[in-house]
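HUMAN: Would you supply a protein with fold tokens?

ASSISTANT:
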Amino acid sequence: MTKRKQNEYQCPLQVTMEIIGGKYKGVIIGHLIDKTLRYNELQKLIPYATPKMLIQQLKELESDGIIKRKMYPVVPPKTEYSLTPLGKTLIPAVIELNQWGIKYLKENNIPCAYKGDLK
């Protein structure tokens, strides 16, 4: 976040895309709509993300105030992720982006493994 604050943005979309435009950030936000998930649940929902990349994306989202992480002092460690109030303001945009993706895939006859829907 410090690096971002030092930059001068040319438009609001630039900062938005910088915050949610990471490789798996939109997917993470989509999975956290109306739910709290543990790290291993997110890992199962996003199996193509390496553990290192998933952790990096989660840390960036947490640093930007989009998600919150709750750790429980148990063995093995239990960590849960959920959207913050700021993160919840992204829900309509993420749902709309998901709908756009569904339409694009259908119009271009591109298969998609994910059959669920957001919300």
